[in-house]
Structures are given as structure tokens and as C-alpha cells.
Amino acid sequence: MSKTLEIKDLSYRKNSKKILERVNLSLEAGQIVALLGANGAGKTSLMRVIAGVAKHYQGQVSVCRESDEDARKQYLAMTDNLAYFRDSVKIKDVAAFYQGVYPDFDQEQFEQILEFMNLNQDEKLGALSKGMKEKLIIALTFARRAKLYLLDEPFSGIDLMSRKKIVKSLLLWKPEDATLVISDHVLGEVATIIDEVVLVKNHSVLEQRSADEIREQNESLEEWYEGFYEGEE
Amino acid sequence: MTNFKSVFKTMLKQKNKQALAYFAVGAIVSLVATIFFIFRYGLKNADSAAIGIGISAVVLLVVYIAFEFAVVLQAHRVSRSQTWQLVPAKKLDLLSANVLSGTISVFFMTLLCVVLFFFLLIPFMLQAKFEGNLFLGMGDVVKNGLFWEGLVWFILFAFVAVVANICFFLFLLDLTSALADFLPLKGWTSKLVKVVILFILFFLGGAMMSRIGDVFSNFATSTFSFALSSKGFSYNSNASGQGLGDLWMLLLATAIYGAIFFGGEYLIMKYLTEGKDKF
């Protein structure tokens, strides 16, 4: 299998604070990967570095063998919280923006996902609940034909039914050869669909293991994950 | 990869929308002011008409200046936003599109304001109660070759000046944010430090611009200025025959400081500016 993502000796600091140190990671094509770690472990920063949004890091990051920061963006789709858009902007305007700037954005697929998520194109961003907005973000991300999808805490603060709907949509719209990375501090609904687990702790990747292997050796993925934080407050 | 054209088109659409919103505010206020003066004092009263038009002109000017600030802030928002930084475009394309779309939206706004201002003048022009030379000699002015030459120079100079100013302020704002990112500060202390850095950079940048201006003015053999007179747009030179050469000097000086800040901004975008997901 070919490598979708390769990270070598990555270190990253922000506001003079160490965020990531000597991270090495390699992900194969077609996998669904859970990027786990406590709040503030550096999961979001790691995704932002991969996506070329975070700067002044050291080390090498390549997506589909492309390490140039601008060029590797064409292979990846990362969830964006849409903070750039004002509340008065309609969903269809955001979609028009995506269609304008992403050559791989598929409007038809976007409409299908939107329908699946029960969202209306004429609704304004300000009128959307947190869960609806998260669904929209997923729809925009998966309307692109990318090789690497980075979902940054897609379930934070949303209800169970919405979480289930999002998980369902991931399975429906993820291209077979694409790699999907989902970051979160809990496993929750994604536990059943993941192929691999990457654990971020102490500013680095502490573990990278196959989900099946963990399931064989432990009662559950959750139990294995919680084991790393036993005795900690 | 996303090309310059797509990025530019999307940015221009957003900025023109913003221009229309600002223009709508200016248009409503100045229309109300003009209509009030027409109904209150009538078209035949030249003094009150002049006050009404004067108020409208001031309103349009204030809205226009506010819009210029908004263009710079919007350019800063674009260069700092995670949404735009995720777009698979080259940094140079993003920056060029950001500056150029801002410049064009400023020209679009100028055009709208000028058209509205002439629209507001129409009732008074039809009454022909204005004694000013501005309308009476307009036909002759337009036929004058100097008018067209002056207008072309004016537009060219305005274009370069707007580009250079957007680059200057964008550079200052982005460098301030990037420097603040290095400091271990949060909350109001971070904001305060940002303001201090911004002021220091503003004075340093201003001093540099004035130094470039000085260097070029030493080469120039005369001083000049644009003027809107009874002859229309024209440039005035105090040394006959040297005006055009000097105009080139001023244009060059403006283009050079614009290019310096554009280059500086490119380096900041490439190496320092992080995408922000909160505004």
C-alpha cells in the first residue's frame, strides 16, 4: 500500500511554548485513523502543520510524496470551522466559495450530503446550531475529492443522533483510497469504524497501532486508551 | 492547484459585495440629506443647495475613507484566515489576488461615489441655478486634450498609490500579528503589545516611505500636484516642461515603496503568518 502521509522529526512551537516534539508518523492509503490525546496534547496543531496552516515548524511533512507546503494542500481536505464567514452568509454562498477555490469540489456530491444531513442551502450560518454547523463542515469537506481528510474533533459538543449521522456520512462518502484522520479526546462513536489508532501524548506520538491488534489484546479500544491516563487527574 | 484567476474572482466578489454594502449606507444618508434640503429650501436657493450637496459630499467621503480602511482590514483577514490558507494556491497568487481585488474594489467604490454625486447634482444642474464654473465650462473642458492627459495620469497614479497603500498597511498588520505570535502572551496583554508594535512599525514604515520620497524628489526638477480646476483634471508643475518627467519620478517612488512592502508581505505570508480559526 502507498503512503498518504509521512512525517519525519517534526517539532513545533507556538508563543514560545513547545507544542510538538520529534513527531514521526506514517499513514497508509485507505485507512481510517483515530488521532487520540487529551485536550491540549497537540492533535489540532499536528493537523494544522500537516495542512500547512501552522508555520515555523521543523522537520518534514509530505502528503502523497509532496512536501512543498502549498502543493501538498491540493491532496488534503481539512475541516474548517468557517469562522471567516459572517453569520449572515448563507450555506449556498459558502458552497460557492468552495466551488470557486477548490478545483476538486463536487457540487452535486455536496448537495447529496447536505440532503442526507437534512440541511437547507438557503439557511444562514448564524441560524445553524452547533451540530448543524458541524454537519455542514463535514459536507463541505467530503464534497472534495481528496487523498487525505483531516477531521478535527468533528463531534465536540454535539448530540448523539448528530454524531451517529456524521459517522454514517464518513463511511458513505469517504473515497476508498483516501485516508481519513479523525482527532478527538474520546473514542465514542468512531471506535467501531477505525483501522488504526495514533496516540498523542507528551508533545509526541506515543503509540501507533492497528485497531484490530488492540481489540485482540484488550477488552475494548476505550479500555486500552484509558490505560494511558490511569493515575492522572 | 487553484490558479490566480479563481482566487482573484472569489476575492473580488466578496470585496465588491462589501463595497456595495458601504455604498448603500453612504447613498441612503446623502440622498436623504439632499432631498431634505431640496424640500426645505427648494432648488432655487443656491446657498442651501450648496449646503445639501456639501453634506452629501462629506458623507460620501467619510464612507469612502471608511471603506478604504475596511479593504485593508479585509485583506488582513484574508491573509490570516485558516479558510484562505487551506486553499491550495501559491502564496504569491494569494497575495497578488488579495491586493489587486482590494484595489479594484476601491476603484469600483470610487466610481459608485462619483456617479452618485453627479446624480445628486442633476436637479440643481437642471435648474441651472449654480453659478459655479464647474458645469458651465464642462463641455470645453472635456474637449481639452489636457483634461484627458491629466485624467489618465491621475488614474494611473491613483492605482499605484492604492496598491502601495494596501501593501503598506497589510505588511504592518500582518507583521504585527506574526510578531505577537512569537510572544508568550494572551488576552489583553497580547492586544496591548500588538498596538505598541503596530505604532512602532507604522512610524518606521512611514519614515522609510518618506526617505524614498526624499531620494526621488532630489532627482526631480520641479514640484507638482494634481488639481481639479476649471480645466478639469490636470497636473501642475512649477517648472515648465519638466512636469511629465517628475510625474514619472513620483510614480516610480510610489511603485518602489509598494514593491518593497509587497515583497515583505510575501515573506511574512510564506514564513510567519499562521492561519487563524477565530476572529
TrEMBL record, chain A:
UniProt keyword Ion transport present: no
InterPro entries in the record: AAA+_ATPase, ABC_transporter-like_ATP-bd, P-loop_NTPase
Residues annotated as domain ABC transporter: 5-227
Q: Which Pfam families match?
A: ABC_tran (PF00005)
An MF annotation (GO) of this entry: ATP hydrolysis activity
* The organism's place on the tree of life at top rank: Bacteria
Q: What is this protein called?
A: ABC transporter ATPase
This chain's source organism reads Lactobacillus equicursoris DSM 19284 = JCM 14600 = CIP 110162
Keyword field: ATP-binding, Nucleotide-binding
Automatic annotation (TrEMBL), chain B:
Could you tell me the superkingdom of the organism this chain comes from?
Bacteria
Membrane-crossing residues?
A: 20-43, 49-73, 94-126, 146-172, 192-212, 247-268
Q: Any idea which UniProt keywords this protein has?
A: Membrane, Transmembrane, Transmembrane helix
Q: Does the keyword Membrane apply?
A: yes
Instruction: State the protein's name.
Output: Uncharacterized protein
